[in-house]
Design brief:
Structural class: alpha/beta
CATH architecture of the largest domain: 3-Layer(aba) Sandwich
CATH class of the largest domain: Alpha Beta
Helix content: 40-55%
Keywords: Amino-acid biosynthesis, Histidine biosynthesis, Hydrolase, Methionine biosynthesis, Multifunctional enzyme, NADP, One-carbon metabolism, Oxidoreductase, Purine biosynthesis
EC number: 1.5.1.5, 3.5.4.9
Organism: Halobacillus seohaensis
Strand content: 15-25%
Bound molecules: the ligand Nc1nc2c(c(=O)[nH]1)N[C@@H](CN(C=O)c1ccc(C(=O)N[C@@H](CCC(=O)O)C(=O)O)cc1)CN2
Order of helices and strands: EHEHEHEHHHEHEHEEEEHEH
Number of strands: 11
Number of helices: 10
Largest sheet: 6 strands, parallel
Protein name: Bifunctional protein FolD
Pathway: One-carbon metabolism; tetrahydrofolate interconversion
Strand order of the largest sheet: 1-11-8-7-5-6
Distance between the termini: 52 Å
């Protein structure tokens, strides 16, 4: 039987509508959530993501600022900018778009952001909070995946989740979030032997390896929930890590690329920024 397709795009629109109402209510109470997005360089995909973030913020009535810095910006200059944003009380969320040019150490930049404004959820303090099951800002793509599963009424507790990919952005945090939801989690990666032995045993398979079409119908069993986090461009066409046509013949649920997980990333960023604004005003 063909799988039920989970369209993150539709869900994202629904959640953004809910957030628009929340932003309006907050502004009546004198709270105006503000996000600042910083980009260094002119990578076309990154520019399109940050513009998407700014547009999405404005569409829900949230204040946002986009700082576009030249490719040759030094690390010192970027750290100075972040220090100023950390001190600016009108700013609730700070996001530095990744990847950064090679003269800048990504980890140094991530660690310079005030954890209470780290709406990406990448700061080691926020990662530590996630690991210890505390409330914090969860990284946006992993958080979006969990929200998608829940809103599609897919139960997580006791399920075997197999993750392909161990990046700090997606693989590692999504596993931790799902562990916190009482799933049994297996991580696979480029050095995993006999990958199919694992993918065949998954109730929920999350593919975040960055390799176009690496998983197909023959790698999964009937009824698997397949979440495709891949964003690959093949011959100018956007495609995921999963061969949709064959996998959707066996999966119970599947996310497409595009219009699947991607739009949830920006939605959860808006969620985290609203949360940051509420937390600051609660202090
Ligand atoms: N500081 C950060 N940098 C990066 C993050 C992040 O969460 N924080 N994630 C990715 C890029 N990203 C957001 O920044 C992102 C990727 C994809 C999408 C998306 O909506 N994809 C669409 C397709 C869009 C297209 O045509 O290219 C989809 O899948 O439907 C949104 C955000 C790396 N950097």
């Amino acid at each position: 039987m063909a799988a039920e397709v989970i369209y993150g795009k539709q869900l994202a629109e629904q959640i953004r509508q809910e957030m628009k109402e929340e932003v309006a209510t907050l502004s009546e109470a004198g709270i105006y959530p503000k996000l600042v997005v910083v980009i260094v360089g002119e990578d076309p995909a990154s520019l399109s993501y940050v513009r998407g973030k700014q547009r999405a913020s404005e569409n829900i009535g949230m204040s946002s600022e986009l700082m576009e810095l030249p490719e040759d910006t030094s690390q010192t200059k970027l750290l100075d900018i972040i220090t100023r944003l950390n001190e600016d009380e009108s700013v609730h969320g700070i996001l530095v778009q990744l990847p950064l040019p090679e003269q800048i150490m990504e980890q140094k930049v991530i660690e310079s952001i005030d954890p209470s404004k780290d709406v990406d959820g990448f700061h080691p303090i926020n990662i530590g909070r996630l690991m210890t099951g505390q409330e914090t800002f969860y990284p946006c793509t992993p958080f979006g995946i969990v929200v998608m599963l829940k809103r599609a009424n897919i139960s997580i507790e006791g399920k075997h989740v197999v993750i392909i990919g161990r990046s700090n952005l997606v693989g590692k945090p999504v596993g931790q979030l799902l562990l916190n939801e009482h799933a049994t989690v297996t991580y696979c990666h480029s050095r995993t032997k006999d990958l199919k032995d694992y993918t065949k045993k998954a109730d929920i398979l999350i593919v975040a390896a960055g390799k176009a079409g690496m998983i197909s119908g023959e790698d999964i069993t009937e009824g698997t929930v397949v979440i495709d986090v891949g964003v690959n461009r093949v011959d100018g066409k956007l495609t995921g890590d999963v061969d949709f046509d064959s996998a959707s013949q066996k999966a119970s649920h599947i996310t497409p690329v595009p219009k699947g997980v991607g739009p949830m990333t920006i939605t959860m960023l808006l969620h985290n920024t609203i949360k940051a604004a509420k937390w600051i005003h609660q202090k």
